[in-house]
Specification:
206 residues; alpha/beta; Rossmann fold; seven-stranded mixed β-sheet; 7 helices; 21% strand; globular; binds 5-O-phosphono-beta-D-ribofuranosylamine
Length: 206
């Protein structure tokens, strides 16, 4: 066979296999893990470009860890008492498992600059407000107290400042007169489950 033709076939195969290769994701959680569940379901879709290969938690009581057992995904609980030690452990785990992207989903620890730099542009977070409004905690209560007409959810890149990285996607949701923090949180959470997969697709296919 002509040498050039051989090279062309080889290149073609390489392109095809890279195209089919799923992006390996680790999801960091601290609690219920309903976003984790929706990401796992999304990853199971044939056409999904991602696989969830690792679930990390700082909290051994996190309910979401059960999804590890259910879907046969590796889980690891990391004690964050000493953040530097915890993050070093994390970095070597992620490297060993060839994790390419990190999705924070209700992860209640703030990652250091050093960690964020090592995964620059590859750490996403979901937040239950229309950022830049209502960074931090108790977003629904604060939005209702301020008589906002709308709230929503945001997926953004993680930067060194809390809930401040570049916004990838947002979904706006109307706050009704009867909404309590609880009802609003339910409405927003169900939209979060749709928004996170969409945001990942946007990042992977800009
Ligand atoms: C979500 O509202 C997310 O936006 C926030 O924490 C909550 C996590 O919920 N960062 P879950 O554990 O995914 O159910």
């Amino acid at each position: 066979m002509d040498k050039l033709l051989k090279v062309k076939i080889k290149l073609n195969l390489m392109v095809r296999s890279t195209g089919n290769k799923k992006v390996k994701i680790a999801v960091f959680i601290s609690g219920k893990g309903s976003n984790l569940k929706s990401l796992i379901q999304f990853s199971k879709n044939n056409k999904s470009p991602i696989s969830i290969d690792f679930i990390i938690s700082n909290n051994f009581k996190a309910k979401g860890l059960d999804y590890g057992k259910k879907f046969k995904i590796k889980t690891k609980v990391i004690n964050f008492k000493n953040k530097k030690i915890a993050e070093n452990k994390l970095l070597s785990l992620l490297k060993n498992y060839s994790i390419e992207m990190v999705c924070l989903a209700g992860f209640m620890k703030i990652l250091s600059n050093n960690f964020i730099k090592k995964f620059k542009g590859k750490i996403l977070n979901i937040h239950p407000s229309l950022l830049p409004k209502y960074k931090g905690l108790n977003t629904h209560q604060r939005a209702i107290n301020n008589k906002e007409k709308y709230s929503g959810c945001t997926v953004h890149f993680v930067s060194s400042k809390l809930d401040s990285g570049k916004i990838i996607l947002q979904k706006k949701i109307r706050i009704s007169k009867n909404d309590t923090p609880n009802t609003l949180s339910k409405k927003i959470l169900s939209q979060e489950h749709k928004l996170y997969p969409k945001a990942i697709l946007k990042v992977l296919n800009p």
